[in-house]
Amino acid sequence: MKSLFILFVFLPYFSSLNEPRNWELVKDKDGIKVFSRHSETSKFNDIKIETELVGNLSQLAAILYDVEKYPEWAYATKTCVLIKKISNCELIYYSEIKTPWPVSNRDFYAHCKIIMDSTAHSLQVLSVGMKDYQPENKDLVRIPFSRGTWNISETSNNAMHLEYELQLNPGGSVPAWVLNMFSSKGPMETFTNLRQKMKLLNHQ
């Protein structure tokens, strides 16, 4: 999901344009794997996360739909506001992302759709940035492109396998040290927090 993210703003670009777009494992810690690959839409790499979660699909869907609580667990999320509820599985939200001084904070609007298939025991989420949904704030940098996808499948009665992919162009200029900070720290903290929320819901 877009907010979600955003969780990994400013990933560094390590690959040349001629290299194949294969995922490369860049971090594997505490059951969370972070992958990176050359992006076709940005000079910043795509990212993929794989991990296991306790709990069920309905619990996770409820967390992802409650966008105004994203700052509690999504790395660097300063604010997240529900703008429009289209249906019980579709919405538009706004988020501001914190960045270290002197880099300007980023913001974005996103259209999010959550689809749960009880027959296939799966959950899919697509969050796409809406660059021109509202005028830009002169004190912030509008993220020009973002696309986050979640694919979650139940592996047992109380366990799930999660894959999350993010394509992102953060816009503006960003120092290398900021890129390095967000390339692995953000994903690890975000999904560590999410796993903990699921464990608390299931009293583990």
Give a brief outline of the structure:
The chain is an alpha+beta fold and 204 residues long. The protein has a single domain, classed as Alpha-D-Glucose-1,6-Bisphosphate, Chain A, domain 4 (2-Layer Sandwich). The protein is built from three helices and ten strands.
Helix count, DSSP H or I runs of 4 or more residues: 3
Detail the poorly predicted runs: 2-18
What's the structural domain tally?
1
Biggest sheet features:
10 strands, mixed
What average pLDDT do the residues reach?
87
**Derived structural class:** alpha+beta
CATH topology: Alpha-D-Glucose-1,6-Bisphosphate, Chain A, domain 4
How many strand elements? 10
Give the overall shape, derived from the CA principal axes. globular
| Rg from alpha-carbon coordinates | 16 Å
Helix content percent band: 10-25%
**Broad CATH class:** Alpha Beta
Q: Encode the helix/strand succession as letters.
A: HEEEHEEEEEEEH
Distance between the termini: 25 Å
State the CATH superfamily name.
START domain
CATH architecture: 2-Layer Sandwich
Report the portion of residues in β strands.
35-45%
